[in-house]
Amino acid sequence: MPQSEIITGLDIGSNNIRIAVGELSGDFDQLNIIGLAEVRSAGVSKGNIRSIEEVVKSIISAKTKAEKMTSVPLDRAAVSVSGSHIMSQSSKGVVSVLRSDGEIMESDVNRVLENAHAVSIPANYEILHVLPKTFSIENQTGIKDPIGMNGVRLEVEAQIIEGQSTHIKNIEKAVNLAGFAIDDLVLGCLAESECALTERQKDLGVVLLNMGSTTTSVLVFEEEDVFLVKILPVGSGHITNDIAIGLRTNIDIAESIKIQYGSTIPGLIEGADEIQMSSIDEKEDGSFSKKYLTEIISARVEEIFSLVDKELRSINRSGKLPSGVVLTGGGAKLAGIVETAKRVFRLPASIGFPISVSSAIDRLNSPDYTTAVGLVQWAVANHLSKEGPNIFGETLRLIFRKAKSLMSFLNRR
After folding, report:
1. Which fold has domain 87-164?
2. Core-most of 52, 169, 241, 249, by most CB within 10 Å?
3. Is the pLDDT of residue 353 over 60?
């Protein structure tokens, strides 16, 4: 590996396009984020590309800002995929171990994962990720890392994540036209889990909940395995729509009101209860009460959380995840949302920020950038493979975690 390397994450959202630029030193023990850029996205609706030309312009704008900030030309990126078209299913694979002495090698793990890849998927869909959950060697089950063990027959239980082919091809085309080669296409919330969750949280049981503009992504981990992937077609933009209707104003003013005065719990925003609309926009007249605004917001937030809890009930995990709920995305910045999450889910709740990275940029400490930074960390794991981008990223991240643990141990000595 080079002494240092620049790695880019490109998060394409319905409201914003964000880029994170990371610098990886030769020992790969610490990732430093050296650049962040954000622009309003155009041509994207509900996670789907509606206009290639507009998306290309938005990506180029973000790319230009990131290059000015870092003084580094950017030509490759790991890119997020999201949207309500995302599906997942379980699969199994089995292979015979090739070595005569029965020792299981990384090539055997990749072969069994490729075997699990052979699953029936809907028309116009393709596989984004094959994520191993547990391995089995003969009668020994529940194995997390079979490399180095001995056996004749290797099996795997895996989670298959699929995306709509047309959507994926549109993303690829837009990103390429904007001047980026694609290192990997990654499910946004899966990349996000790389930087917003700890290994202990994933082991004990946690739900990562990203409240985007038009979708809410739900990712459940237990014993470090992906237990549930679900993209709900409702997000923080629906809160803005509710405010616009309730206060009889336009979307832009409703968004400003949400950012400035929005809360899920009455009394959290200081100042008088009655707000003049002219203080938001001099062309507006009338007024609204913060109490009424809170009622509008809390109704929609509780509805979104109830839909998420319904998904948790479907896998018998409602109220049963010890590490609770980690909230990310723009919607996570609403005042009082952590308290509301604790009440609805009956679990601990917190805001997710990028962790395990260093940076001098203050904006990094925000739930907005978890996906972009997570993409950088995902790409770091894949850089450990000389074969380049690989859908079996979980195996590579396992190696990456071992390397990081070894470096941390050596640094403590």
Report:
1. Dna Ligase; domain 1 (3.30.1490)
2. 249
3. yes
